[in-house]
Amino acid sequence: MGTATGELGYRLARKHTRVALKNLEVAFGDALTPEERRRITRACWRHYGRITADAAAFHRLRPEDIGTRIRYEGLEALRAAHAEGKGVLLLSGHFGHWELTAYMQGFLGCPLVMITKPMDNPKVEALLAGLRSGSGNTIVAKADAVRAALKALSSGLGVAVMIDQDARASGIFVPFFGRPSSTISTVGTLHLRTGAAVVATFSFPEADGGWRITYQRLTFPGLTGQREQDVWRITAETTALLEARIRERPELWLWMHRRWKTPPPAAHATETVSPTASR
Predict the structure, then answer these.
(1) Model-level pTM?
(2) 95, HSE (Cβ side, Cα atoms, 13 Å)
């Protein structure tokens, strides 16, 4: 059902399909032919349909699914980060099955504070909040983000941060697919302020219908102590890591979002950066 719904989205939601095709052109240029861009866009829509349908069955998931239908790599890195007691900044993007990854965290014994933008429709918002909190996570409105994040980290909890959407005027510009992109600086700002561990997570579908979820501890050696410069570096390196995962499996990222909606200042240079963040 989800795949079929995604196929309809590809065919009927023409505005969003055009956005996806344009984003792929911006990101990959001549490295992809028009036919390849259409193939990835269609696969992206079908993937999005599948994971949306999956969410309706979250109530069936149990801790016993860990290691069976849902398998992990690097789980020890997540547990070690929590054991430090300063909280964990868990970063990801709209890649793979991000809702499943967050949902299962509660069953892992590492519940998250999830900062979300409330939906306009209160019934839909209530449904999503129920799905997201079913395993023990806490949902916080974006308006209370900073206060809620600081409180959670001081209590040793995890805070989920999605780093891949256009941040408008509040963002800082770092390279993403070779183009200056307005990006939230939450991870860098909170890491420097609190000393919270930074862990990246991504999820991948497997042939048997299960999912593989990975965790990677990130460190940033050689920070200068200059806050603005260090926040930029952390934001750039984590964004470069996300880009690397998208390049591996482009059909798993949500290309229908207008990622480059906010233009950079005219004088902004197109910096490049290597993903030097380490385990």
Answers:
(1) 0.91
(2) 27
